[in-house]
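Collaborator request, handled under Task 6.
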Amino acid sequence: MNKNNYIDRINKVMAFIENNLSDRLTLDMMAEAAHFSKYHFSRVFTAMVGMTPIAYLTKARLDKSISYLADADRTILEISNLCGFESASNFNFAFKKQFNKTPSEYRKAVSKDSNISLFFGNKQEEQSNPSHYDKSVTNNFLRRLWQMNISIEELPEYEIAYVRHVGSYLDTHIAWRKLGEWTAKHRLYPPNQYFIGISLDDPNTTEENECRYDACVTLPQSFVKENHGDVQFRKLPGGLYGLYRFYDTIDKLGIAYQSIFGQWLPNSEFDPDERDCLEFCMNNPFEDPEGKAKVDLYVPIRARD
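Structure tokens returned to the collaborator:
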């Protein structure tokens, strides 16, 4: 099994986007076209294509608008609708951000200078990825990462206590501090219990202030679940996971995710499953001599159909 299956699925969703630019496309619809869950689709697409699905959709719409703007008979509002923008103001904002001109300014420039469309075409070429995924394009650093050992593991179901943080992932220490105070009170320590971080949203597709993160600790069977204020309880489902043993500065963890979803999974015999990725915290990076985090990163997988 090789990554052609993933390449075909990414190309299929790209074609779906380009054939439905005037429609109101959602992340769910794009994920369905690629046969991935919404959360994991975003990670796979971003890792393989180099931009988020929403960014790719916006770029495709702007590329299409260039050809329409050459037609003086169409109004800016009509072009905005044809290219799937919710309003002319949204179209104007996105166009100026991409090309440093409003659609009207571009149209006037075209009427004065026949070479302007060639200039914009070159600008698009400089900024764009191919309209289909090119499997020959590989980042050497990511390739070194996914070639490192990833083992296949079966995890049991865990009862957990957790504190939820909503906001920037840079501020998850707030949840960990609250959980740490609670676990100290109840004498829940490693190695008997595990501390697990769960990023519930992809920051590439979710507003920073809306990202959810759970700081978790596993519980012994005898633990009595009472009302504990900020601390909540639930079960983590067991099942099959790909395990990557990460040891580096915490800012590199995002690169590890990118490598797994963009390189290892497409070359494996697995698809990402609906369950959450689990970050087992194996050390305190502030106490590490090199300031590095040791994380056992479990990515939920299932056998590819």
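The cover message to the collaborator said: "The CA atoms of residues 30 and 180 lie 40 Å apart. The chain is about 40% helix and 20% strand. Please let us know whether this matches your experimental observations."
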